[in-house]
Amino acid sequence: MDIYINGLGNISPQNTISSDNFLTDINEVNEKYMQVVQPVYKEYISPKALRRMSKIVRMGVVSAQIAMKEAGIDMPDAINTGTGMGCQADTEKFLKSMLDNNESMLNPSAFIQSTHNTIGGSIALGLGCNNYNMAYVHRTFSYESALLDSMMLIEEGQGNNILVGGFDEITEESYQIRARINLFKNSACNNLNVLNDNQPGALAGEGAVFSVVSNDKTENSYCKIKGIDMFFNPDNQEEIDTRINDFISRYNLSANDIDLVIVGKNGDKEYDVIYDNVCNAVFPESDIAIYKNLCGEFDTSSAFAVWAGSNIIKRQDIPEVMQHSKKRDGKIRNILIYNQHRNVNHSVILLSEC
Amino acid sequence: MEKLKVQIIEQLNLEDMEPSDIENEEPLFGDGLGLDSIDALELIVLLEKEYGIKVEDPKEGKKIFESVKTLAEYIESRKN
Amino acid sequence: MSRKVYITGLGIVSSIGMNIEETFESLLAKKSGIKKPKHLTSVHKNDFVLGEIDISIDDLKNRLNIPENEAYSRTSMLGMLAAREAVNNAGIDNINEYKTGLLSASTVGGMDRSELYYRDFLTNDTHNKYIDIHHCGDNTEKIARDLGIKDFTSTISTACSSSINTIMFGARLIKMGILDRVIAGGVDALSKFTLNGFNTLMILDKEHCRPFDETRVGLNLGEGAGFVVIEADDIVNKSGKKPICEVSGYANANDAYHQTASSPDGNGAFMAMTNALKISGLSANDIDYVNVHGTGTNNNDLSEGIALKRLFGDNVPPFSSTKGYTGHTLGAAGAIETIFSALAIQNQVTYPNLNFKNTINDLGISPQTEVDKNSEVKHVLSNSFGFGGNNSTIILSKINNN
Asked: What is the ipTM of this complex?
């Protein structure tokens, strides 16, 4: 069953808040990690609600509002969220004050806001939405799980307009900690040149993307989501290739029908090679694009790729900054998003024109 | 009481507020300033941090936090 | 969409038992696991009673045969214990014989290690191996590797309602034909992070909690893990296995009232229970026993009680909170109480609400206080509610043809 993407909201390190332009004015940074361009939150959230919200809650709530406005709905039938690391800033705040003050005189707000369902809960609270509300928290499967759940709800007839989002925030401490074990690069890196950077690890980033997915095609529809798959801990490259081929054939397509593959290359050379292997073995004729040079690496970055892929299909334009290898000229009908976390969690999402 | 208002604004992150925006006898909860039960817990932490006063029963908070005036009176009474 | 979902295996570890057998014995013997903690390091350890499992992190490693130098959180190891038992209990030899998924839940993941080593994480390399086991999905990955599951893994964190949601999601994946079999549940280990967090909310009872009692003042925290194996009826019938019960209904709704408190009219709870009944095709009168969320806080029990009265009117079925046995095990609570409910159907028995004496005046309904072995248990409803307004309900039913 196909579902339509009818509205998108994206708060990212790029200028993505307005949907008037699509990656025309690119932010180039030379930093240890990429941070989002923050909107003026007061324009979206009341001061009373805003005062307790950390960055991740703010960017989640606002990107959800933007997506709903674009889709022209004011009450979703369900709210599904994905986040790999959740509310890092509030978790750190509570944890550190607990350690520093020897478990005394702690503020409840940071604890309350540290739970992974804070964003979905805050959106529901703001809308007065009593409907289905779920939070997935499984590294790079978090957003994918939320998206799959949304497709299932529509297929089950449990809802028609589902608000689904993925978000993660970077903080100085969480960056430092993960750079220590080379998950992230230890020194500054130019985001637009990330694939040529020789430091171990990925260029860290953050972001929040919400979309409204629906059974109904509207004037605003960007594209269809045909399917999602996730697989864990493959034995070898052949297993990866086979699982991706099997996934595509489930939708009566062949690899050659995939016009564009958006891959999650993040500048970590040790694992970027897996994408090259898959592209060479399975998609020798397809265009290849990248996106983490725009938003950095974070667990729910595939939500950014869905945003980008949706715009590419709607506008029939692959922004130059995303182009990795260009072989085709024709219409872009089918896009496969392929992301993997250090060869452990692999996920694919298939988008098609509507 | 001005000092107390500054502390309340800080503790509760009332970003756009000035001490003069809070009336001494204005209800802090409900129709007044519109604070909620989490704020009440934050105010209990404030009392302990700034004044060394421990409130053990959260139900006690209701009376203490009626307004800035009642709060100031409570602090005064616990000092003596 | 006509597939039914059966529970075929159970696995559990909590302060009242290291496995199903010990747990069930404790339930019948009215034996609580709540006491002063031995293993948790916290300045408050003498201030509170907790549902702590009496096993050290080293003994857990030994029991699971994990090499000394490998980094495992207490959370992950508790999860592995329960998940292994569930798979054995279901009589599964070849995990990949059918398309199988693993769904786990946790609220704080590897926090039990992170809170010990956080300063090191920031300043030196002595505990680097614990850095990447902090996230909530770590326990799921560990269990998936342990069991050899590859097709589908995911993790849910909706605060204290998390692990009902994994069973619900698993049941839906099976009904949709995406998977044939799912190991679903949740786990949380005690940590000083959660202990201090709940302490700031001033909802911890220093004595044994008294759910649904007029004099209740709060909850006791606990730790544990619970996993169920759920399978499609077609593969169960093919194998000739005897299933334990059916997952007949489930629902998730949001109270949308307050960040932590439940609404005075119990709206979210009422909607979750009503929608779960709708999915099951049952009416409220069909429910023989309710395992309530019943944390023992002022707010939860009143709000949940009002929702029960809204749904069942004057005929509220026998109900009890089992939090007096285990404490509130957070991300594991929904699964642990689903397992208690499955055992209720399997053994035709329902459990007492420990420490109850006085009916809540504003409510006028009282929980069951003794073990009941004499009533028929065909349909059981279990609730789990959490911060952020997340409310979930699951309904289990006796399978008629056996």
From this structure: 0.97
